[in-house]
Amino acid sequence: MSDLRITEAFLYMDYLCFRALCCKGPPPARPEYDLVCIGLTGSGKTSLLSKLCSESPENVVSTTGFSIKAVPFQNAILNVKELGGADNIRKYWCRYYQGSQGVIFVLDSASSEDDLETARNELHSALQHPQLCTLPFLILANHQDKPAARSVQEVKKYFELEPLARGKRWILQPCSLEDVDALKDSFSQLINLLEEKDHEAVRM
Predict the structure, then answer these.
(1) Helices (H), 23-112
(2) What residues are designated binding site?
(3) Which residues are annotated as a binding site for Mg(2+)?
């Protein structure tokens, strides 16, 4: 090969390296999903979302109406609309369901029997609501770090999830503020369900 050809080859390789390093376009935009987050007061919804957003726990105030947080992940951004869980607010939850692409339900796995029964009824109502029944659900059994916490198997049995949610997309995961990696993994599984639903919609 002549010196000219060798020089041209090196120049072309330099050009390709330059394009790869300096001329890359912007990274593809991460998909955004609009989610609704529900659960009784004291279940830990606000604290969990604040933890995912790396906010200081000292600044966490229980949600009385509703709030919206953009929770960033490597492959998606979750726009989470958190609804307050007080008795006088829960009856208005359904007004905020429209436009949701997924549901996060947080329950206190260490709560009293009465509160657990109320949470069970609210989850059953959400799973059967016309605007939510086809959406992916992430059910978080929170406060697993407390001595009175029920296991995931106990929660699944008590909430009758197997018969009620058969045929639906749902995940039941244990969580606590002490294990942020497990919390992030739960949300990653939810993102996978959201992506699957997107792909099914495209195929249709």
Answers:
(1) 45-52, 87-90
(2) 39-46, 63, 85, 142-145
(3) 46, 63
